[in-house]
Amino acid sequence: MQAFLDIFDIYLLEAVINGILLGGVLALLALGLNLIFGVIDVTWICYAELVMIGMYAMYFLVQYYGVSYFIAAPLTILLVAILGALLHYLVIAPLLTAPPINQLLATGGVLFVLQSFATVAFGIDFRNLGIRLPVLAFGDMNFSYARLLSFLAALVGMVAVYLFMTRTFTGTAIRAISQDRQIMALMGVDTKRIYLITSALGGALAGLAACLLVLQYDVHPFVGLSFGPITFLICVLGGLGNFIGGFIAAFVFAEIISLGGLFSDLEWGYVLAFAFFIVMMFIRPAGLLARRR
Amino acid sequence: MTGRHMAWGIGLAALAALPFVYRDPYHLHILVLILIWSFAYTSWSMMGRFGLVSLGHGGFMGIGAYVTALLWNHLGLSPWIGIPISMIAAGALALIVGYPCFRFRITGHYFVLVTLALSGIVLQVITATRDYTGGSLGYTPNRASGNKLLALQFDDKTTWYLIALAVWLGGIVVWHLIDRSMSRHALEAISEDEDAAAAAGVDVTAEKLKITLISAVMTALAGAVYCQYQMFITPDTVSGIAVSLQMVFAAIVGGLFVSLGPTVGAVITILLAETLRIGFGTKAVGWDNLVYGVLLVLFIIFLPKGILGSLLDRLKPQRKVPRAHEQKAVQIARPGT
């Protein structure tokens, strides 16, 4: 035991566990994005901005209207789910037959809109919930309750989505569409409705992530840029549309960021993660779990 | 064709003569900004018009600006040497990232997201090495004590206007050279169908790498010129995803497929931002991007060829060779032909 501790000192272990906790939320974000990509074949570049709007919603509900956190959370999830459906209805639906690049760029435009809307409406101040959860001390290691709670909630969210996808008719239809887009319409499935439901579900996952992230981070209009790119990298690394690949990639990335941050600044953790990503594109261009054709 | 050449000649002469006739420093400043950004947007559109949508150009621009400034401040290397070095650096990075992308057929969404990672890396590296680059607070090249020309620092707007005009013109010339070359046909074939192009004997990887290299090197030059002109750069104004998206936006609004499209895009976006800034002052923070975003979405849905592109199509529909999907529509309309 002593030898074990000599090699893995306590800070390393703490960083590893914090990485796992961070990975939970990242996996949740990646799941939402993968769902949208897998079913509708569209990448929402503005996904992290939906999370940002959700974080603002939480902030205003809790701080201004004095709603309790546990009532505000479902309201926020509902709001972001509606936003997701609206995004699909207004922007993606007219572009469904356009080249994929145009769809991606249109959501890039939505990114601008949401970011600057937040700047105009809420200003560029950093805001936080004012809820400071205690720190859990375990041996010599410290973990924040916020991270632990987020990790658990993210797991619950993912299990719920998994059950929905496997146990309900709509979920089965969604999985079927992600396998073959053309045939499902012939099988009598209303693809438009399924797309809307999927978009709302993706939005709801963004809303859940917002409720969890708002516990750990301050809200400002550009907060999306701090975890948006990493979410895309996770999805690509896991293989776009591959749920399990995204899940694993989220934890790999979280560990790299957490351990990289241990040895140097947090930014270097990100640099390391980005560099790792580009190296992985050489080795496994179609994602971690890609089947060799 | 001579008429077209005449028009270009007269237009250029008028542009070159402008600062000697009209000397309002604010308006010249706006024009210089428009020219520098037009050059950057034109560089982006060289790739973008062939379906190679890159969100990594913010990274190339950041490299151009920061490498030049860092070499000047820390090593005292003149920008005359620093700018080529920064362009080589950006080109090398473009090759390192581009080669696996093209070799392993990373296209569409994947390509966009990989290049997104690239601009993320550059932004984070600039922020992380804050001891040298000043981090997110920005960076200022030292004022030259001796020879202004050697340091490429000029105080008057007229000189900068002429430099920016020359650089912009260079960009347009390169655009036209590529437009006339075989590469353009090869790249158009690739953007329609990679496998078919490869089967027809097009070296897909080499052609894509060539255009990526040209585009990245030119973008780095734009960053370096911007840095020398403004004498102040921050990671957010010259690199990162926001800058990349801004390039995409301007190029699409102006028109991707015509040489002056990105320039028109730059004129529209910069004038819009300035008008809002002057009209509303600090209250306008964010409004310009809000308008950009809405316009970008509307343009992609209703006018994907951009303002200038659609205008030219409207003016002379017979000159334009229809692209593959348009030809298909024609065939469906007239069966049997």
Structure, described:
The complex is a heterodimer of chains A (293) and B (337). With 293 residues, chain A is mostly helical. Chain A contains twelve helices and two strands; from the N terminus they run αααααββααααααα. A two-stranded antiparallel ribbon of chain A has the order 1-2. In chain A, strand 1 (135-138) and strand 2 (141-144) form a beta hairpin. In chain A, helix 3 (47-64) packs across helix 10 (224-238), helix 10 (224-238) crosses helix 11 and helix 11 crosses helix 12. The longest helix of chain A has 31 residues, at 10-40. The mean pLDDT of chain A is 82. By secondary structure, chain B is mainly alpha-helical. Chain B contains 17 helices and no strands. Chain B has helices at residues 2-21, 25-48, 57-75, 79-103, 108-128, 130-133, 148-151, 157-180, 182-192, 194-199, 204-230, 235-238, 241-254, 261-280, 287-302, 306-315, 324-333. In chain B, helix 1 (2-21) packs antiparallel against helix 8.
Order of helices and strands of chain A: HHHHHEEHHHHHHH
Mean pLDDT of chain A: 82
Q: Most extensive interface: pair and counts? A: A-B, 50 and 45 residues
Question: Major sheet of chain A: size, sense and barrel closure?
Answer: 2 strands, antiparallel
Radius of gyration of chain A: 19 Å
Structural class of chain A: mainly alpha
Strand content of chain B: under 5%
Work out the number of β strands of chain A.
2
Oligomer: heterodimer
Shape of chain A: globular
What order do the SSEs of chain B take from the amino end to the carboxyl end, as H and E? HHHHHHHHHHHHHHHHH
Short characterization:
The complex is a heterodimer of chains A (293) and B (337). Chain A is mostly helical and 293 residues long.
